[in-house]
Amino acid sequence: MNDTEFHQIVDAQLQQIEEAIDNSGADIDCEISGNVMTLEFDDRSQIIINRQEPMHEIWLASKTGGYHFKLIDKEWICSKSGVEFHAMVKRECENQCQEEIDWQ
């Protein structure tokens, strides 16, 4: 995968996250600036998602730690836990909201 393909794939992932949050009705503010997506919660805590172009990875930082995701068989998988990216974002959002979020 070249850098252009990497950015297109990550852009699509971030758009899916933003749409899932919007459609869920959860009270999470979402902002994308450059290569960084910031999810902000009522208590002003944040989840930061950014792309790491040199390694072709997505990184996520939250209250519970930092996670790196590599594209494996068309899915972004956490190198620490093996959890898929969207599942991890949902889990971390629920942790920070302290409530279940219904998103597809």
From TrEMBL:
Q: Entry's HAMAP family?
A: CyaY
Listed name of the protein: Iron-sulfur cluster assembly protein CyaY
Q: Write out the function statement from the record.
A: Involved in iron-sulfur (Fe-S) cluster assembly. May act as a regulator of Fe-S biogenesis.
Q: Which UniProt keywords apply?
A: Iron, Metal-binding
- Organism, scientific name: Vibrio marisflavi CECT 7928
**Metal-binding in keyword set:** yes
Q: Return the similarity comment.
A: Belongs to the frataxin family.
